[in-house]
Every structure is written in C-alpha cells, then in structure tokens.
Amino acid sequence: MGATGTGTAPGQGLTWSLRGRGPEDVPVPADPGPPGGRPAPRATGRGVRVCVVDSGVERDHPLVGPVDGSWVVVKDTEGGGISVEPTTTGDTCGHGTACAGIIRRTAPDCELHSVRVLGERFSGTGDVLMAGLRWAVDQGFDVVNLSLSTTRTRFAPELHHLADRAYFARTVIVASAHNTPVESFPWRFASVISVGSHQEDDPELHLYNPEPPVEFFGPGQNVTVPWLGGRTIRTTGNSFATPYVAGLCARVLSAHPSMTAFQLKNALYLSAANVHTGPRPSTAAGDTCDSEN
C-alpha cells in the first residue's frame, strides 16, 4: 500500500508525491532562457561563480586574471584523513591554469575559484578528486569545471550520488570525457554535462552529439592555452574543450540565473551548430509532416 498524506518525509523534505497539495502550493517562477539557447552578447558571466577542480591556477597569469579563491585538498599520509585548506601555492603542472584561462576567455566577468586535487606531473588519487569535487558541490558553486576523471570503478557509486546531488542543487558539473576509449567517471553520468573535443577551426563553435554518453563537443584540438610562468602553449585534448563549455554555461547563467541544470543543458543543445530547429507543417491529426503537397 502506498504512503498517504502530503508526500513529505518528516524532517527530510523528501517529496515523492503531491497528495493533499495542488499546483498553487508549488509555484515555480519560470525562466525561459535565451532565445535559441544562445547567450546574449552582453552576457559575460558576471555574477556566476565557477570552480576549477584541477591542478590549481597560477595567480597573476595575464590570460587568467584574478582568482577569487584557491584551496587545496590535503591528505594526511599517516592518519589517512582528507581536508580542504586555503592555499597560495598556485598551479603544480599547468593543466588547471589552462582550463581557467579558457573559462576566462569565454566568460570574462565570471568569478573564478580553484580547488587543487592534482600534484606535480599530473599525479592524483581518486579519493582526493572525490574530496575536492564534494567540497565544490557543498560550497554551492554555479559551475564546476572538471577536466579530470577516474577509472577506478569503486568511486563510481559515490560520484554518481554526488553528481545527482549537484544537479538538483543547481550546481552544474561540466566533466571531460576521457581522451581514450576507456571507462571512467563522472562524465558517463547523465546528471553532468559531458564534453569531448572537435577538430573544427572555429574557436566559438560547439556541437551536440546525437549518440551520447558524450553530449557535447567543444574546441579542443591544437588550441592555445595559458601555461605556467605566464606563458602559452598549444595543446590538444578533451580537457580543453570542457572549460569552453563551462564558460558558455557561465554566460547563459549570468543572464538567466534562475535556470535549472536541465534548462541549461537544453540551451547548449539548442545553440549547438549542428542542431537545426524550425517549424514543420502539421496535419489535422496533430502529427508533423516533412513533405509539401
């Protein structure tokens, strides 16, 4: 027999039905989002908090600009405890600086924050990645750029739960697909925005993938990115397509801050260069018809 009442578990706020309540009890102020999914030219990311979970970000890099907050995940080698602490150490290998610079280029007025989970030579562990991502979600950032993944399946259930929690809390995780055809996480989950790279020359172009799990492709082949020491390099990888899409998310949210995660994903879908929408003639039965008589 099903539960009765309002459908809310005492003290948990868990709603699974609207028994005893009607539409007037759950009003939702709607935000239709940008026409065609495209952010307005004036949308620059202002007011949107973006967190780069990576190797840190080099401070004062001319192509990154101000970093509003930097933290590092610290693991106690003796006791095994993990904590997140403020840091001024910057970037350990350049990867996070590259991602931050792409976000800054795409959404120049967003707030940039950094959580370092990688060490020198791109070293890292799944539990440290998990702790950094969990902390970012707990802080309620609007967008989290995760150009990383783990192949350790033992982390998959917890990552899946965390990704779902972020989705419903309106923290959008933009996650990079692995560069090789191996199973890794969390980009495989539908609750994140998953990104691979395309080889088109247009640096302002993103595509929708009609055959997920990778949902979107962004510019990530032979791209110029900021690197350590105030330098730039040219590099390739899904890691560098991901922050472009994260920057697009920041731009859309700056103009439409009430949009939900699934609305934002739909905006990316509608504005993809290979998605074509338009009116189709309708029949009397309400079906659509492609041919003209």
Structure characterization notes:
- With 293 residues, the chain is α/β, with parallel strands linked by helices.
- Helix content is 23%, strand content 18%.
- Strands 3-2-4-1-5-6-7-9-8 form a nine-stranded mixed β-sheet, with helices on both faces. Strands 10-11 form a two-stranded antiparallel ribbon.
- Helix 2 packs parallel to helix 3.
- The N terminus and C terminus are likely disordered.
Any low-confidence stretches, pLDDT <50, length ≥5?
1-5, 282-293
The radius of gyration is 21 Å
SSE order, one letter for each helix or strand: EEEHEHEHEEEEEEHH
Strand content: 15-25%
| Secondary structure: helix percent | 10-25%
Can you tell me the overall shape? Answer: globular
Average pLDDT taken over every residue? 89
Number of helices: 5
Structural class: alpha/beta
How does the major sheet shape up? Answer: 9 strands, mixed
Total beta-strand segments: 11
Largest sheet, spatial ordering of strands: 3-2-4-1-5-6-7-9-8
N- to C-terminal distance? 55 Å
